[in-house]
C-alpha cells in the first residue's frame, strides 16, 4: 500500500533514525507512533509495561501491533513496584476510574506518579544497550492539562538528563522523541488513518473490561478524536450513546 502523508505530518519524524526504542501501551497514540516510525524505515524495538494497571488488556493489543510490524517486543514486569503506587485509579482498586471528559480535573485520579519517567528510563537503558539512536513515546497536547510527564518541559528536561547520564555511551545524535507533543488526539486519528493503522486493534479504556466502557475519560477522548477527525470509529463500546 502506498502511503501519502499530509504535509503537516511528514516531518514529525526524520528519516535519519535507524533504530528506535518506542514505548507502546496498545493505545491509539503509541500504536500510531509505531506505525509512523516503521513508515520512516526505522528498525523498531517496542517496549510495553505491566505496572499492575487495571487495563492490562492493552498489552494484548500492543503484541498485535508488534506482530503486524515485525518488531521486537518486550513486556517489562513492573508489578513489584505496585505497592508503592497507591492513590491512582489505574493501579489502586480502591480508587474509581472517573467518567467525563479527558481534560476534566477528575482525571487527575488517573495519574500514576512519575510513570513516563520510569518507563522512559528503562527504554533509554535498552536503547543504549542496543546502540539505538532514539527513544520515542506518544505524549500529545491533550495530555498536557493533567499529566506533567507529557509536557514539552518534561521532554526537554528528560532528554537533557539522558544525554548527561549516558555521556560517551549514547549513539551519536541520540534523541528522545515525542512527535505528537503538539498534536491533538484528532490529529493522531487522522495520521493513523493515513498510515493504515487498524484502530480496531488498539485499546484505550482505563476500566479494562472485555469492551471499551464508552464513558471513562479515555473512551470519551477516543470517541471525540474519531468524530473530529472524520475517521470511522471501529470500536465497540459498552455504552452506545456517543460523545456527550
What would the keywords be for this entry?
7 helices; alpha/beta; 34% helix; 244 residues
What is the rounded distance between the termini? 36 Å
N-to-C series of helices and strands: HEHEHEHEHEHH
Helix content: 25-40%
DSSP summary: helix tally = 7
Beta strand count: 5
Pick out the low-confidence regions.
Answer: 240-244
Q: Please give the order of strands in the largest beta sheet.
A: 3-2-1-4-5
Major sheet details:
5 strands, parallel
| Dominant shape | globular
Q: Averaged pLDDT, please?
A: 92
Structural class of the secondary elements?
Answer: alpha/beta
Q: How many whole angstroms does the radius of gyration measure?
A: 17 Å
Classify the beta-strand content into a percent band: 5-15%
Notes on the protein architecture:
This protein has helices spanning 7-10, 28-39, 58-69, 115-130, 152-165, 185-195, 217-229, and strands at 19-23, 43-50, 72-77, 134-136, 175-177. Strand 4 (134-136), helix 5 and strand 5 (175-177) form a beta-alpha-beta unit. Strands 3-2-1-4-5 form a five-stranded parallel β-sheet, with helices on both faces. The protein has 244 residues and is of the alpha/beta class. The protein is globular, with a radius of gyration of 17 Å. The chain contains seven helices and five strands.
